[in-house]
Amino acid sequence: MRAKTVIGVDSREWSVRRNIEWSLPATGDDFEHDVDGGRGAAVMVLSALFVFWLIVVIWYPREVHVPWFIWIVAVAVLLFFPIRWWLRRPWTIVAETEGSYDLPAERWTGLVRGGSRAAEELRIVVRRLRTQGTPGHADSPLQPIS
Hints:
- This protein has three helices and five strands, in the order E-E-H-H-E-E-H-E.
- The chain has helices at residues 38-58, 68-87, 115-132, and strands at residues 4-7, 13-20, 90-97, 106-113, 143-145.
């Protein structure tokens, strides 16, 4: 995503952005137990599902009548998990400044789940920078990085 430039209340120029995370970052205790099949496993599973549904459609007897609402339910079931996966992806929010003559450079980052929640958190960060000069607040996912 593109970075948004915000001038803080203390006249520092902040760069604020959000990026989607395609794989969950390993943190702390999860690092040694983080096992991911990777893209190869995802391609293999999706290919197997595609072949399965292709076989079902090809061998479908034409004499059997399936009501229209069953097809809608089947499509909804097939699309539920991919849509849920897309909507619940983690987003990284970053607010950073190079500092100024008398103030040091800062970098704040945080992880938020969901695109709409990430957009809302980005609006909160921009508003806080313009009014209070710091991107974080009491219950903010953003934390300073040294």
